[in-house]
Design goal:
Blueprint: H1 2-30, H2 39-45, H3 48-56, E1 74-78, E2 84-87, E3 91-92, E4 100-101, E5 109-114, E6 121-126, E7 132-137, E8 147-150, E9 155-159
Length: about 160
């Protein structure tokens, strides 16, 4: 009887610890509070090009972005709110004319179905400020097979120290 009781208590303990750990991980992802600013506030802190891309889903011309050929080690941040989005280790040259990443920082980039311009794509936005970054395509390198095609003007770069 003592063995059965002890087994039940230990099982309940481990199940509750496992649930608590899972809940904590879920909570940390959900704790990203949405940054809300007025149009006037965004215009104050962004250049005209950044504003049009991040807030109105414009696209910079191919091969013109400052990060297209950048290969330094560091982290790419949202140009609107400085939220970390992509590690430089995930960046590669896709030949598309825009910076490309094979993966993003999990939970920091949201995907939204985009049916604009007569085609179906997946738009990617910053999870903190909803700033438009670009699109993700399923033609990237292994192991993810993804190509996050991102506007340089929607990013900032923090070099690894």
């Amino acid at each position: 009887m003592k063995t059965v009781t002890l087994s039940i208590i230990l099982t309940l303990y481990f199940v509750s610890c496992s649930f608590a750990q899972t809940k904590t991980m879920e909570d940390s992802i959900k704790k990203t509070e949405l940054l809300i600013k007025t149009d006037a506030e965004w215009k104050e802190i962004l250049t005209e090009e950044e504003y049009q891309i991040l807030r109105h889903k414009a696209t910079e011309r191919a091969f013109t972005g400052k990060y297209n050929k950048k290969h330094d080690q560091g982290i790419y941040l949202c140009g609107g709110c400085q939220y970390p989005l992509f590690y430089s280790s995930e960046k590669y040259d896709s030949g598309s004319g825009w910076p490309a990443y094979s993966d993003c920082i999990k939970g920091h980039v949201k995907e939204i179905i985009d049916n604009s311009h007569g085609m179906r794509r997946v738009e990617v936005v910053c999870a903190k400020c909803n700033g438009h970054l670009g699109h993700v395509f399923e033609d990237g390198p292994s192991p993810t097979g993804l190509r996050y095609c991102v506007n340089s003007a929607s990013l900032n770069f923090e070099e690894k120290k």
